[in-house]
Amino acid sequence: MKKNKDCMMINHKKLIYFFVILSAFLIFAGALMPSESFAQSSGEIVFVVRSKINSDGAMLREVISPASPADVNFARAEFLSDRTSEITEEKTPDGKVRLTQNFRDLEDCIGVLMVQKDLYFAERFQVRQSIPQYFDEKVMASVKARFEFEIPSGVVKVQKDKKTQPRQFGVSTVNEFKLDRPGNMDVFYQYNNVVLISLVVLIVVLLFALAKIWRAYSFLLVPVLAVVISFIFAGIVIYVIGESPVSAMGAIFAGVFSSQTNVFNMLLAATPLIFTGLGVAFAFNCGLFNIGGEGQVMVGGFFAAWAGYALSLPPLLHIVVCFIVAGIAAGLYSVIAGWMRAKFHVHEVISTIMLNYIAYSTLGFLVLQPYFKENGPNPQTNEIASSAFLPTFIPRHDLNYGFVIALLTAIVIWFILYRTSFGFNIRSVGFNEKAAEYSGVNISRSIMMTMFISGLLCGFGGTERVIGSLHKFNSTGFVGYGIDGIAVALLASNNPLAIIISALLFGFLKSGGAYMNREIGVPVELVVIVQAVIIFFIAADKIVRNMLKIRE
Amino acid sequence: MDTVISFIIRLVISTFSMATPLFITAVGGIFSERAGVINIALEGMMLIGAFFGVVGAFYTKSAWLGLLLAVVAAGLFSIIHAVICVKYHSNQVVSGVALNMLASGLTVFLLDVMFGVKGTSENVVTIPNMNAIFGVERAATGSNFLYNVLDFSPVILIGIALVFAANVLLFKTVFGLRLRAVGEHAKAADTLGISVSKMRYYGVIISGLLAGLAGAYLSLCLTGAFRKDMSAGRGFIAIAAMITGKWNPIGAFVASVVFGLAQALEFCFDEPVLLGVKIPNQFIQMLPYVLTLVVLAGFIGKSVSPLDLGKPYAKEEKL
Questions:
Q1: If you measure CA to CA, which chain A residue comes closest to B106?
Q2: Confidence category of residue A4, pLDDT binned at 50, 70, 90
């Protein structure tokens, strides 16, 4: 009884008023202060890429960067757009950064050279079309790049399809490329430290107040505070490594909201996460922990690619068939874990982990078999027929109607879980397996059905990746979605509709993080750390509850 | 004859070099799981060990100090898991997933910040092999028998010793009895005056220390540098070995050696041939995982986990 006394409430209220007034004052004071500009890379970026083909066929590309970290980041992004090579980075004795790119395959490096040579003489929109995620207007606006090609004169033999084709190269070429437009910096950089920090304080306090006044909304508090705490944690980390937390956070925001392309990047990154999040959450609702999202996404992706190139169907039907084939394949793959759980009481966490690696190896094997593999050096399947391409919203950007399908799927799953007797049975098994059994629910069947649907949803995630943007299957392009799906589901408390929001948040972190890395030089892995901290605080919600003295 | 012998020596040594990180980690996992805490964060703890091994070796110029730092760092890292699982009674699998994610992000992040490189660290001093410790030189001519026999890392011996020490500790001492009691029936153990949370803390931290050692073995003995996500699923193979070995150090050791042998075959033959059919490497890679599922399903001797595994234990409130 003592805990419920009203005097506790009054104290909280006073505290809230105090913080609201304080924050308002700080914002006001901050607005009056001269705002500090964090613009650092306006003007021209100049860097030199020296490309050299050795006589043994290996190619070395070096960027010897000038002073600013933004230049290094730009060069790094430029290199990263070639996925066929390894990149190493070292500091030269005179304080510059040397980026070296090693190609494993001569064919690749020649391809890159050719593309590069053409690209930088082409119109800007073509550059963006080829590598949209790394080139946006702002960066391109202020770039002055010089590419030097050093190729041994004479004939270099290229092994292609077991036939040796000679190719003639010139001795040495130097290309210069320049675009003159002043760089415009982001509005977010103009924010003052004080304003941003007090805004965060204000949001936290308001939430705190809301949750205290409307108890009904207190379920929101833990996820939101988990996100806020993890951002504060990230800020501390950024501060410790000697960067400015405000400009880093500002860059994350700027990287998402500064242009239509960037917003679309976020939605594109969120799409597979909605699917895998739904998959994991669906299993959670039945009390099952599906860590197998990784494997199921891959299985789905593989079968979508197969259905995409092996069948010839009219456009819309082809897309539907891809989804169905991939969904059923991934669902059946996931049912193995459900079946083992129902039949042998094997814990699904262990079995799905094992199935992930089994899928990885098996698909790694299958993708090398002549029936599936495309002609060429890379281990990937044939490209799917254009009738199976998911239509995109705008030209030259990968964001496709898979996003809409993901939203609709979330609604359907919500309906199944909360408005059908099937969903009710599943949730009752998750809530209390024994009670559900006594009330006549077939536990084994529920578990297997749940795992099937969970796998199907994860498989849809892989399908969207393949027919939406990659258009072929390779065994490396699908890593991470299953695990991120767990984070998404946990943050959303397994509510299908909330998953849309939490997937958007993780998509925001992913696409914003890449931008931050480029602009500020803070490693992009910061995003992974933030994600992990969010899960920690969701998992240990008692920490948050104790902090705020909220009972469950 | 000579070539056969040298081939067998090579096979045995590579088997154990592959198996060592597995059984050291698996034994750690056994301590955690026998105490009732699911530990799928072994992968992340190995990664932390591998990274801090390199950091220690880089700054102290001594591989052994690097090894020590790795063990300590992974031990500290495992405390996060212990606190979240034992003190806050959270879902242990969720905590493990988060820890793996954190380790993967943190190591690459720190690699970038501390060394200014992406993906792969600089090469550091490695722990010398036994032949170097005993000063056996490779002879220019004639048989290199002694050199070849001693061409393995001392950490392998430490690991094997740890397996037997763990077996004694778990099954022959009071501490081991208490640890197992806490994992089998926490409430009964608590009634008998054993501190459940203390024993679980011990279990998780021991698993962290050992996983750190295994991780340092990867970076300081096998490669001599840190690579992004270099544990490459070994933490999960260790879990597979632990389950296949029925939560028993000796069993986990045997399972790890079998898995290690499979990997060593991949090294020693380009494409192993069984009954005239070539076995693709991918099938060897998935052997541990398939075997685990088979064992769990009870086709080859049933493997049963500790009874209270994964159940958080909260002492009843005082009235």
A1: A529
A2: very low
pTM: 0.75
Q: Give yes or no for a contact between A379 and A475, defined as CB atoms under 8 angstroms apart.
A: yes
pLDDT band per the 50, 70, 90 thresholds, residue B272: low
Residue A438: other Cβ atoms inside 10 A:
9
The answer to whether residue A280 scores a pLDDT higher than 90 is: yes
Q: Rounded CA gap, A38 and A46, in Å?
A: 20
What confidence tier does A120 reach under pLDDT thresholds 50, 70, 90?
A: very low
Q: How far, in Å, CA of A368 to CA of B192, rounded?
A: 59
Tell me the β-bridge partners of A62.
A50, A100
CA separation, residue A247 to residues A74, A75, B182 (Å)? 17, 21, 49
- CA A40 → CA A66, A68, A69, A137, distances in Å? 14, 9, 10, 16
Question: What angle is formed at CA B305 by the lines to CA B27 and CA B83, rounded to 5 degrees?
Answer: 65
Do B249 and B167 contact (CB within 8 A), yes or no?
yes
> ∠ CA(A463), CA(A465), CA(A470), 5° rounding?
120
Q: Tell me, what amino acid is at A444?
A: S
**Is the pLDDT score of A88 beyond 90?**
no
What is the phi-psi region of residue A321: left when phi exceeds 0, alpha when psi lies from -120 to 50, beta otherwise?
alpha
> Is the confidence metric ipTM above 0.90 for this complex?
no
Average pLDDT over residues A60-78: 55
Nearest-neighbour CA in chain B from A531: distance (Å): 8
Asked if the model's pLDDT at residue A70 lies above 80, the reply is no
Beta strands in B144-303 (DSSP E): 273-274, 277-278
The DSSP code for A100 is E
Give the distance from residue B131's alpha carbon to the nearest chain A alpha carbon, in angstroms: 33
| Nearest alpha carbon to residue B48 among B173, B200, B192, B214 | B214
Partnered with residue B76 across adjacent β-strands are: none
DSSP state of A2: G
Q: Give Cα A458 distance to the centre of its chain.
A: 15
B19-128+154-299, CATH topology level:
ABC transporter involved in vitamin B12 uptake, BtuC (1.10.3470)
Optimal mutation site among B122, B282, B308, interface A, most CBs of chain A within 10 A = B282
* Token representation of residue B14: 């590579």
If we measure between CA atoms, which residue out of B223, B232, B231 comes closest to residue B54? B223
Q: How far is B133 from chain A (nearest CA, A)?
A: 33
- What letter would DSSP give residue A145? E
Please give the pLDDT value at position B308: 79
DSSP A365-408: HHTTSTTTBPSSSSSBBPPPPGGGPPPBSSTT---BTHHHHHHH
pLDDT at B297: 81
Residue A68, helix vs strand vs coil: coil
d(C-alpha A366, C-alpha A373), whole Å: 8
